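Hello K.,

You asked for the raw outputs rather than the summary table, so here they are, unedited. I folded two proteins back to back in the same session to keep the settings identical. This is the first:
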Amino acid sequence: MVSTSTDHIKYFRFLNYWMDNPQFMETVHTCWEKKLASTVQWGIEAGKECVLCKNAEESAEHLFLQCQYARKVWKRILESIDQHSTVPLVWEQFQNWCIQNGKGKRATAQWFKTVLTEGIYGLWIERNNRIFENKSKKEENIAKEIVCVTMARISFKNSKM
């Protein structure tokens, strides 16, 4: 399945069903479009290497899909919703995987969409905390936080129905 511009619009329309935080959606949308700027492009001297694993140059694809730190976070959070697949390593495959697993209104799709967006945002926040505040957390702690926020969001959404 090849993702199209229409798929991207549909994807964000269904992600936006519960999200009121514009900064959050901007981060997720920027990630989705693979337009994350490095700190060097923002005029910040933080280096080009990934601050999460320190093993590769930072890019959107590396930060969210290929970084060993991120892969451990994804594994833990996906297991929490009984999603036993592996996050793809290639951006276009990741987009198709997201669209495929997030389709529909069934509970598993809702969990998947929420975990996905919280995962992206959580990894981005961790990256920024390391760069701007010199603070870091272990991947299991980030994963636990993402799962807790996901559970709260799903519970809140369901209580409004």
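The second followed immediately with the same parameters:
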Amino acid sequence: MMASKVALLEERKEERAWENWGRGEFAEEAMKQVLFSVPMILTSVAYYGIPLVSVMFAGHLGDLELAGATLASSWATVSGFTLMIGLNGAMETLCGQAYGAKMYRKMGIYLQASIIICLSACSMLAVVWWFTEPILILLRQDRAVAHAAAAYMRPLIPALFAYGQIQCLIRFLQTQSIVTPLVVCSVSSLLLHIPITFALVHPLGMGYTGAAVAAGVSQWISLLMLVSYAIFSKRFEETWQGFSTEAFAIILPTLRLAIPSAIMVCAHVANELGAGHVDKAKKAVKVTLKLSIILALTFVLLLVFGHNAWAHLFSNSPLVITEFVRMTPLLSASILLDSTQGILSGVSRGCGWQHLAAWTNLAAFYLIGMPIALTLCFVMNFYVKGLWAGLVCGLFFQASTLLIIVLRTDWTSINLSVENDNCVLT
């Protein structure tokens, strides 16, 4: 009887904790999250901005160039860059929990295994990217646009190899709460990218392909900066102890987490769980969700009130600008939902729930989002708006399902055992 009362009190206490988000109860945790997340946001925006700036330069060369660069950028993101982020999702779980458990040497081993995995994946993807034109034509794309996209994709291949290794190093540093160097390397590379792109496209006469080449040059500059910091800094004496053949032995176990993460596409949560601090992990989730919603709403307001300015960055065509304005409401909804699911997916990786989240994502987009998108686009003739509306429906289901999982999870039952020189999820 006494035990049931204690359980009831604990349940009510948990409910009040979720209800008291806006009352300053988590101010200290919020400050920690801001100090950690703002540099990571700047890093992500900077790395996203490098290929985006290249598309901007290509877009101002003409409508066909804009269409080709945009299609190539989308294809590169879906088939390559996002995959690199997903494959490194295992590092958020493994390195995050190893760091929390003070098993520092294992972090260097996990880094090497992830680099091997990413380089192997990049080698296979490079072949796919080389044959972009026949693939896009097979997918019923316009031949002229497919040809332009292929011309943009091939010189972009070196950027993929650099980006994969950058993502490995980002996870390695962020799980140790080392974020300032990431900001310096990413933002400085973005700032250098603008004159590099201009020089290759215009004075050096490379034109359209020069924009893609510039993206690769800037990514490799950033990678060399990060590698130099990791080698010469004394902050990694415990976590990086040189190359080891042990990395080859854990490639398959790492892949078991990496592949579901790639299908999915929170280091702080993993740190706390690895250290056994369940309450702190839960608090981190609550505060991060709140901050992500605020940030997403800020971006939505900037998009709604400045859509013409954003459109002019990519093209001077009145038709392109008009179509962009029409898509703004759907884009705003997808930003808000995507920010929420992004945090919840990060929590899933931190807790080692990759497989559960992967199945959720597959169901959200292939069983719900895609059928709705195809119906609205081709049956009801809403075309592009229909496709995007289907995406929004998929995001809504994904975010809602992940939120339910997080809310209903008994966090004390998460069994993350880290024993001596090995990190095992059970």
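Residues 415-426 have pLDDT under 50 and may be disordered.

Happy to rerun anything if the numbers look odd on your end.

Regards,
P.
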